Amino acid sequence: MKKISSIFLLVGAIAFSGALGFYLVKTMPVQQDIAFADNIENIQKLQTLDAAWSLAALYTYSTPNSDFDEVAAYLPRVRELRETLSISDLATGDVPDTLKNKLMRFLLMIESKEESIEHFKSNFAVMRNSLKFLPLASRALNVKLRKMDDEKHAASINDLYERTNAFLQRPDEGTRESLLMDLNKKDEVLMEFPESIANPLGNFISHARVLVERKIQLDSSIERVVNLKTNKIGDELITQYKAYYTDALATQYDEQFIHFIFSLIAALLLAIAAITGAVMLFRQSQEFTEKLEQGIAEKTEAYEHASAEASGSMVDKNLDQSMEGMGRMVATVAHEINTPLGYLGSNLQVLHNGMEKMQALMNEFFTLKNDLGRMDNSDQISARIDNFSILVQNTQDEAMLDELPEIVDDMEGGIEQIQHVIKDLGDFSRKDRSDEDWFDIKQCVESALKMAKKEITSGTKVQLDLKDVPEIFGSPAEMNQVLINLINNAAHAIESTGRTDGLIKIRTSLEKEQVMISIMDNGEGIDDETRRKIFEPFFTTKDVGKGTGLGLAIVRRIVTKHGGKVLLKSIPGKGTNFVFVLPVKKKPQE
Amino acid sequence: MMLTTKQIMKNSEHFSWQFTRNVKLCLLGVAVICSPQILAGEPLLDEPIKPIPLTVDVDLKKVALGRLLFHEPRLSGDNTVSCATCHDLKTGGVDRTKVSIGIKGRKGIINSPTVYNSGLLFRQFWDGRAETLEDQIDWPVQNPIEMGSQWPDVLAKLYDDDKYPGMFKAIYDDGITRENVKNAIAEFERSLITPNSRFDQYLRGDENAITAKEKRGYMLFKRYGCISCHQGVAVGGNMFQVFGAINSYFKVRGNITEADMGRFNVTGNPEDKHVFKVPSLRMVALTPPYLHDGTAKTMLDAEDVMFKFQLGRKAPKKDKEAMVAFLKTLVGEHPEMKK
Known about the structure:
heterodimer, A: alpha+beta, Four Helix Bundle (Hemerythrin (Met), subunit A), Heat Shock Protein 90, five-stranded mixed beta sheet, two-stranded antiparallel ribbon, 16 helices, 7 strands, 75% helix, B: mainly alpha, Cytochrome Bc1 Complex, Chain D, domain 2, 2 domains
């Protein structure tokens, strides 16, 4: 019996170790967990790198004297991550095709970003040059043509120059085509001019043409660099991958459970057969269960770790979003400031040249004055004076003295434009703009309307429905600004539809202990995508030069400061209704 | 004199530099210590051109092996052409011909660029088709009009050699492989930087490192807009640009070849027609003839083409000469240049 029992025991032990071994082999999860965590980490790294790359490109775009080394330096790092991911098990392994396709899409997007960055660099380099050269070329031509009393052509060059500038400020396809056509026409009649004009005119036309041709390309390459939805696709990829992994893990648990049952049945059958070994076997199977539980616990932990990393990506995402906001800020401010700075620079160069010529003339004058004292022959004197007159005439032409007032005007305009941007920035960041007091919102609406009047197109009607409401405590000047910004936006929304029956409705009322101010327009409306970002600083849908993208951010900041809230309802194509509510406070007894 | 691994190591130890698997290679041992920037005034930090770093991180064993392979004619199909045939290190890293001659007298289709500072470039080849120096090597080795070889043959030849198997084994666990050959050559190429040019000394704060005429040349180089593309550490080599940015070059030159299509051959994007990598101007003074088609014999010729087609403006000869003077100050130092 003892012998039989020990044989049974032996058989049972072998069978049991076999089952256990089978179970262990089938449930080795470690490798996959590491791959999962690695892939997630690499996707996130690529997302971060991608966001930083956009910023680097924008920095280059907005910085004078910048080089392209930094932007180029991202290339190898991006490439390495892209390659690692493209040969990872997520791309090649046993994962569903939807997931593989998503990864491919993400990687292709990054690849197309590389291409957009290259196009941005090339276009920007050429445009940066031509932007500097064009004003100089146009002025030099003007002076030459005026000297030849050719006012007609001087005016037409001026016109082309102005139109090119206007186009660069607000590019659109229609203007582009007509401008290119006119430039080509000028190019065709080049031979009719004397060589001294034809050469600089040819240069002027070439540069203007390059600017017009490349402007839209440059803008779209920047647009592609900044707004490519790599982050979104990356997030989707991570979410889907996580979901898949959770499922796969669950399936694995199921399989493990079946293996466990099989092992148990086998073990139990053997245990019944080997009665003497049964007790032993049973104890071992208890150990086995513990082992399984431990395995499951470990895996759950690994999964939670991966989840925690994924939620770490939420932090990154917020960071990316604020970087996106910052990128937009850099781009907007750079755009707004760079244009006037550009012509300030080139005008200064003209002034500088003029000054040098004037200096030379003055020196000549003193030499002449000295020499005259020593001369007695009047012919000699008059010859010297004639020579001097010619020199004066030449200096007048070459130093562009006639142009000076205009050049200085231009520069003043440029400085004003920059001041405007800075002031907007200041309004946004300033904490205590003015004193607080009790004020009547009705008066506020009326004064804001007066100030915003010039923005409202002539066909647009303004309807007021101002009910008596309690006085508000706060800063009337700031509230004025809120109203001006909202009225301006309403006016612009109507203007961009081009409709002649525009309507702006402003209402004030008291609702549930709160003063409600509503500004409604029948303009173009706001789509969902825009609505999400509309209160962010530096977000703007307006053309360059028209808005700094701070208006609504200022509105929200001021209203929130006053304890209120801004609400927005909009139907694209129909109109928008901005409503803000302010709390009614108890006025202290006087 | 050969710059041997031993000597470099001696230098490095002398300056008690960190000595790990990746040894910091001090290419200009003494120059680093006595270089003028320590004595001189404020460095010019805001210039669009930046100085080449004085040192580069490379694995010295790989550099030594790569140097041998770079001069190894057995990489070619008929054992006649090595990398150094067209990229002669003594003549600025080029062969100074319009197009290079490969095995059996076969003529290339595009001007060979210098191998010096190629590690500073963002991509390789005129059309940027290789993203790394390692990738680049596949083309010349296998191109029938260059070295006309097959990798299995190359590896077999190297394997039969006395020294190579041991040298490879000492660095790479898997010995002689295609990837390892490419990696060693690339590592050698990465060591070919040319720091401490007179212009770099000027950037580092030595005002007297370049003459008044050369300074004027640099000022003009910026004012005329050359700097828009030729900027950064390598004075180019970090971006693409269309050849004919303002006026069409190929319309004037005619006879457009496949090589003239530039990056379009790589991407197929019409926007990339006639787009080329902006070449680095660091070694320009030593590497005539110029342009991808090698049609400009002198620097002045090349400037003429650039003014006409890339800048769309005119400059007096005096200005162009000043710019040539400036370009000559960009050439730095490397022990291989003096051998």
